[in-house]
């Protein structure tokens, strides 16, 4: 672990790798969720698999949580160090003239997303844990879609979801592309195809999640 | 017999240096560890010398007034560095580089020194490439060359328009390596205020820590002065704001002779002065003259109309333009040496043909090159019937690749687009060939005190060719001084560490403190800059591009008067025990006020015209410089006197055994 | 042109500083920013005040000495320009101009607008060189052919003037652009390859020791760099670092 954080460059690598891992997870999460719109049976089937497959539950899930924790702890640590690197602030600083707001405020978008994750975990993960391990309810491969739809009845919750995904998009807009820069991908030095691709992904995936949330909100009966 | 012994070795010219190196004393590696050397100045000469001395095993302390050695003004050299590599196969050789340099210097330099410079020039390029200096290359991966003023071969190596920075960073990297090894201790933001002599030998310096104001003593077995030139005696020059003569002048005061102070190079391609507020002048590489044509209007009325803004130069018809360099010097045209080009510009402007508001500017025009390059581009890219406009557009791109940064710089400063209208240029003080007198070993007339680079007088005679300053700085620092200093230090191996707790150091520190005290306690009427600007005006008007006895005499009187006033009335705010830039400036200007008078005296004493020194009384019927080899083929080395007009002249006769002294002709 | 200047004044490294307002008249568009400062200082001296200290030397945009945060931007509003090459024609009559020193823990203030940038020197001392001694018989320069594209790229990285604008612009006061430009120059040349591993490790270590912040890829450094040093250098350094860490 010490090798991971011993230099500023190593810390960048950790941020980039954990971020990219979360990007992959997000993609997979989206693929499953979109089935709730286009193929409800598949959604139930896949959700059940994810919920009861031991490999997913006892290997993938801890890794995911670990990656998430590393990403946000490291993010907070880095931000703390970065603040220390400039103890006296400028009286006037025009950051917008040389960089985007999102790139300078990853900590803000990141913390909002983290707060959202809290809600999200409460909504689904805590619920799952309760169902499976506290109430020990029997397996039911058809419960997932109704449970999902039920969450998107409340307009306030839907609103929070929408706002959070917009902030996630902002976080990704800078973070996804940035991770390649941090890892020194040669593609960074070869034109801006990679950058455009990451921007497209950063908008489309969160937009997709927003679409799913709104779809269920407007289609609930 | 003169008191000056040049110590030029015997033997045939081409073998002198090798023979000399074979016979001088060496210091064994174990003893080197016990020997300390101080290097003042960390530009090309000082930086390279310090690094090399440390590699050899000496303990080195470096001093520079900047916050980092990398900022020395060598960094500003744009065009390139000469070396007799003959990569272009155009007939270059050590002899040709030697000959061009001797001739370019108007036969006022030492043959043996110049030949040594030519001999080591190739090593410099090898060394720099090995260090990772990114010189310009051709598509085949080999090094590219360009041509420069005053020569007929392409021997100039370059790194776009910032060769000086790249070479300096190379020397700085070598220096950093030694700092990292603990062999060099850098004292940045330090200024040398005095040289300390013990038993007639240089044994250390007094320096001021520019951050804390502390006065420090540093002892060493030898001191190297590599503090650059004194062009700022003119106030306006292309030198950095901080460039100064203090280290060299303090050494002079302690007994080192100052040679040829009047040899000043006025560079022809600088951006003209825009107004009273001007703090410094900006040079544009001489390489621009490869492709630019210099002209003024043929008719006085046109020139007047242009000055008044009624006419634009760009609209003037071809037949109404006077390409005066091409007219006067058909063989070299726009590529005549710097002194010739500068004087010709002044001649035209004095005659009323100047083209900016002040009347002190000529045009540097790229239109012909746009077309010439554009035509080649069009043909090589299959556009066989391109129009003139298309060709010009293509040509502009070629020029942009070659000089883009210079064009941008010009546009930024002058607020005019040089791709559309011709540039305006005017000569400006750029380099000083004079400096501390040194023998063949680069030792000054004080034993143990050496001088390298622009700070010494050595290799350029009365005029320096383009791309030779970088060559000389690095030659001195990498390849000459590290050997020759050993010859002196070989006798110092038994000396032991130099103590700074001696009467000599006490006295030097006392003198330094008294001087600072005096500067801080002026009556307080005028700022330092007030005096500096006044001095600059006297120098420019009376000791500038052309000089005469009446003006020079007047200049000496005026400078003496100004100096007296300065010491009485200068106002230095703040205190001496903190960072105080006004105090720093005051110390430097005080020395310039002495140097200026010696400068005028030297110019007055030299009754001939040679290189950068043009005396109006000594010219041919068509206005060319008239040298007097019978009476003035010597180096003027001045012994210090606190009244510079009473300084004592020592002459080192220049002996020419290998070149025939000819009238320098570029026609 | 009439201006109002708000300038950071600090008597010494330990002193407490503050912003001080100075009105200034008679400024001409052809003056450089530093010539404007010269006039202010001349006025201050004549009024018996202590002038504003600032680093400057060549005034040609190449030595990297000058360093002013002008209205919240390093070297002011004009891109690819150092403070000394910024001209007053970029400002308007009546403007208020805020002038501050670079702010970074690794660049402590010495006096007024002067900061200590020796941390940059130390980063370079840690490895920004090729270990070759000066001898009279190094191999011939043309025996190391280098692809023009690589030579040009190395040159571009080497054009950094070490002014510190990248650090000043970065919200994290990170020195990645500076360090990576040096690492890149040598990484792109065959002469630098042999020591590449040690170089990147040592330079990054020193950079961290100096207390610069971490890079978060905002790109502000490249935009504010007066020499246009590219962000790709940082990617290259990250790559070199990984190579060094994994392959040793």
Task: Kindly describe this structure.
The complex is a heterotrimer of chains A (221), B (667) and C (248). Chain A has 221 residues and is mostly helical. Chain A has helices at residues 2-5, 8-38, 40-52, 54-84, 101-104, 106-134, 144-151, 155-182, 193-219. Chain A has a single domain (16-85, 101-219), classed as Fumarate reductase/succinate dehydrogenase, transmembrane subunit (3 helical TM bundles of succinate and fumarate reductases, Up-down Bundle), CATH 1.20.1300. The mean pLDDT of chain A is 93. With 667 residues, chain B is α+β, with helices and mostly antiparallel strands. Among the domains of chain B are: 269-427, Flavocytochrome C3, Chain A, domain 1, CATH 3.90.700.10; 504-653, Fumarate reductase/succinate dehydrogenase flavoprotein-like, C-terminal domain (Methane Monooxygenase Hydroxylase, Chain G, domain 1, Up-down Bundle). Chain B is 38% helix and 14% strand. Chain B has helices at residues 16-23, 29-32, 44-56, 94-104, 111-131, 163-180, 246-253, 300-307, 324-328, 338-350, 367-380, 388-414, 469-489, 503-520, 528-542, 549-569, 581-605, 629-632, and strands at residues 36-40, 59-63, 81-82, 156-157, 184-187, 190-198, 201-209, 215-219, 222-225, 258-259, 264-270, 293-297, 321-322, 362-365, 423-432, 435-436, 449-451, 634-639, 648-653. Chain B has a five-stranded parallel sheet with strand order 5-2-1-9-17, sandwiched between helices. In chain B, a hairpin with a 2-residue loop joins β6 and β7 (201-209). The longest helix of chain B is centred in the middle third of the chain and has 27 residues, at 388-414. Chain B starts with 15 loop residues before the first helix and ends in a 14-residue tail after the last strand. With 248 residues, chain C is of the alpha+beta class. Chain C has two domains: 3-111, Beta-grasp domain (Ubiquitin-like (UB roll), Roll), CATH 3.10.20; 117-133 and 142-247, Fumarate Reductase Iron-sulfur Protein, Chain B, domain 2, CATH 1.10.1060.10. In chain C, 36% of the residues lie in helices and 11% in strands. Chain C has helices at 33-46, 118-125, 148-158, 165-169, 176-187, 190-193, 196-209, 220-224, 232-247; strands spanning 3-9, 18-24, 69-70, 73-74, 96-100, 109-111, 114-115. In chain C, a hairpin with a 2-residue loop joins β3 (69-70) and β4 (73-74). The longest helix of chain C is centred in the last third of the chain and has 16 residues, at 232-247. The relative contact order of chain C is 0.14. Classes of the chains: A mainly alpha (221), B alpha+beta (667), C alpha+beta (248). Chains B and C meet through α3, α5, α6, α12 and α13 of B and α1, α2 and α3 of C.
């Amino acid at each position: 672990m010490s090798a991971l954080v011993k230099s500023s460059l190593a810390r960048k690598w950790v941020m980039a790798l954990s971020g990219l891992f979360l990007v992959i997870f997000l993609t997979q999460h989206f693929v499953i969720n979109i089935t709730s719109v286009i193929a409800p049976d598949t959604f139930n089937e896949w959700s059940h698999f994810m919920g009861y497959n031991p490999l997913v539950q006892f290997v993938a899930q801890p890794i995911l949580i670990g990656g998430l924790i590393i990403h946000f702890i490291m993010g907070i640590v880095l931000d703390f160090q970065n603040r220390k690197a400039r103890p006296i602030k400028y009286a006037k600083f025009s950051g917008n003239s040389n960089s985007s707001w999102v790139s300078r405020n990853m900590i803000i978008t990141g913390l909002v997303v983290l707060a959202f994750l809290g809600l999200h975990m409460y909504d689904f993960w805590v619920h799952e844990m309760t169902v499976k391990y506290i109430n020990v309810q029997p397996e039911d491969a058809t419960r997932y879609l109704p449970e999902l739809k039920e969450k998107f009845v409340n307009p306030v919750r839907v609103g929070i979801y929408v706002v959070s995904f917009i902030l996630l998009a902002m976080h990704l807009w800078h973070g996804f592309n940035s991770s390649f820069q941090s890892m020194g991908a040669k593609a960074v030095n070869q034109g801006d195809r990679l950058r455009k691709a990451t921007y497209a992904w950063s908008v489309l995936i969160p937009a997709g999640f927003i679409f799913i949330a709104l779809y269920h909100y407007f289609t609930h009966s | 017999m003169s008191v000056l012994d040049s110590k030029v070795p015997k033997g045939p010219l081409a073998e002198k240096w090798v023979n000399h190196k074979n016979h001088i004393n060496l210091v064994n590696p174990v003893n080197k560890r016990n020997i300390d050397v101080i290097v003042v100045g960390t530009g090309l000469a000082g930086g390279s010398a310090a690094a090399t001395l440390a590699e050899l095993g000496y303990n080195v302390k470096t001093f520079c007034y900047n916050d980092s050695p990398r900022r020395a003004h060598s960094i500003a050299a744009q065009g390139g560095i000469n070396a007799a590599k003959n990569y272009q196969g155009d007939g270059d050789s050590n002899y040709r580089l030697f000959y061009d340099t001797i001739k370019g210097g108007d036969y006022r330099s030492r043959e043996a020194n110049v030949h040594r410079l030519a001999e080591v020039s190739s090593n410099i390029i090898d060394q720099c490439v090995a260090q990772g200096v990114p010189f310009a290359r051709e598509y085949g991966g080999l090094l590219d060359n360009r041509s420069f003023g005053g020569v007929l071969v392409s021997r100039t190596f370059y790194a776009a328009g910032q060769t000086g920075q790249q070479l300096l960073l190379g020397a700085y990297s070598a220096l950093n390596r030694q700092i990292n090894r603990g062999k060099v201790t850098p004292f940045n933001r330090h200024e040398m205020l005095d040289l300390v002599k013990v038993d007639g030998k240089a044994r250390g310096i007094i320096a001021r820590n520019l951050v804390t104001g502390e006065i420090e003593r540093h002892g060493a077995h030898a001191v190297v002065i590599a503090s650059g030139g004194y062009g700022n005696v003119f106030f306006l020059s292309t030198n950095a704001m901080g460039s100064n003569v203090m280290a060299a002048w303090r050494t002079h005061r302690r007994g080192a002779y100052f040679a040829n102070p009047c040899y000043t190079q006025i560079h022809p391609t600088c951006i003209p002065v825009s107004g009273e507020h001007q703090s410094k002048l900006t040079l544009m590489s001489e390489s621009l003259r490869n492709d630019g044509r210099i002209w003024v209007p043929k008719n006085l009325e046109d020139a007047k109309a242009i000055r008044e803004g009624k006419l634009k130069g760009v609209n003037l018809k071809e037949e109404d333009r006077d390409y005066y360099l091409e007219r006067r010097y058909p063989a070299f045209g726009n590529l005549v040496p710097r002194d010739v080009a500068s004087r010709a510009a002044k001649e035209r402007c004095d005659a009323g043909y100047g083209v900016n508001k002040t009347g002190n500017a000529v045009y540097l025009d790229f239109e012909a090159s746009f077309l010439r390059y554009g035509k080649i581009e069009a043909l090589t890219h299959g556009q066989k019937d391109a129009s003139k406009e298309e060709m010009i557009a293509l040509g502009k791109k070629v020029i942009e690749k070659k000089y883009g940064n210079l064009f941008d710089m010009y546009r930024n400063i002058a607020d005019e687009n040089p791709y559309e209208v011709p540039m305006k240029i005017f000569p400006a003080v750029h380099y000083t060939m004079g400096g501390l007198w040194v023998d063949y070993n680069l030792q000054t007339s004080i034993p143990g005190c050496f001088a390298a680079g622009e700070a010494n007088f050595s290799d350029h005679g009365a005029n320096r060719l383009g791309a030779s300053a970088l060559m000389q700085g690095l030659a001195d620092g990498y390849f000459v001084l590290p050997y020759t200093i050993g010859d002196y230090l070989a006798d110092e191996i038994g000396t032991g560490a130099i103590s700074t707790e001696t009467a000599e150091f006490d006295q030097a520190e006392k003198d330094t403190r008294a001087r600072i005290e005096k500067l801080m306690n002026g009556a307080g009427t005028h700022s330092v800059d007030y005096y500096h600007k006044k001095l600059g005006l006297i120098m420019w008007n009376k000791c500038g591009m052309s000089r005469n006895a009446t003006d020079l005499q007047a200049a000496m009187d005026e400078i003496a008067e100004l100096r007296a006033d300065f010491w009485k009335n200068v106002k230095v705010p703040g205190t001496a025990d903190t960072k105080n830039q006004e105090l720093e400036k005051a110390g430097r200007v005080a020395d310039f006020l002495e140097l200026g008078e010696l400068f005028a005296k030297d110019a007055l004493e030299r009754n001939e015209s040679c290189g950068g020194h043009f005396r109006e009384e000594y010219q041919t019927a068509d206005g060319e410089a008239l040298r007097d080899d019978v009476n003035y083929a010597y180096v003027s080395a001045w012994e210090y006197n606190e009244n510079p007009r009473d300084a004592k002249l020592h002459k080192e006769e220049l002996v020419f055994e290998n070149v025939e002294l000819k009238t320098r002709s570029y026609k | 042109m009439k201006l109002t200047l708000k300038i950071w004044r600090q008597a010494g490294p330990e002193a407490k500083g503050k912003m001080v307002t100075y009105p200034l008249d008679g400024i001409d568009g052809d003056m450089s920013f530093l010539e404007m400062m010269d006039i202010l200082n001349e006025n201050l001296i004549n009024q018996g005040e202590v002038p504003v200290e600032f680093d400057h030397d060549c005034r040609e945009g190449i030595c990297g000495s000058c360093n002013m945060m002008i209205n919240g931007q390093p070297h002011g509003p004009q891109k690819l320009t150092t403070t000394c090459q910024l001209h007053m024609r970029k400002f308007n009559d009546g403007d208020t101009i805020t002038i501050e020193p670079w702010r970074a823990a690794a660049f402590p203030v010495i006096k007024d607008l002067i900061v200590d940038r020796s941390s940059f020197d130390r980063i370079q001392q840690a490895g920004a060189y090729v270990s070759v001694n000066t001898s009279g018989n190094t191999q011939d320069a043309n025996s190391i052919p280098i692809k023009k594209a690589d030579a040009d790229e190395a040159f571009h990285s080497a054009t950094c003037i070490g002014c510190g604008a990248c650090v000043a612009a970065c919200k994290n006061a990170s020195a990645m652009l500076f360090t990576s430009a040096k690492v890149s120059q040598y990484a792109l040349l065959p002469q630098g390859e042999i020591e590449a591993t040690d170089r990147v490790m040592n330079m990054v270590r020193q950079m961290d020791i100096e207390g610069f912040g971490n890079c978060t890829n905002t790109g502000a450094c490249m935009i504010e760099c007066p020499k246009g040093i590219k962000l790709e250098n940082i990617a290259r350094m990250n790559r070199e670092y990984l190579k060094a860490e994994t392959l040793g």
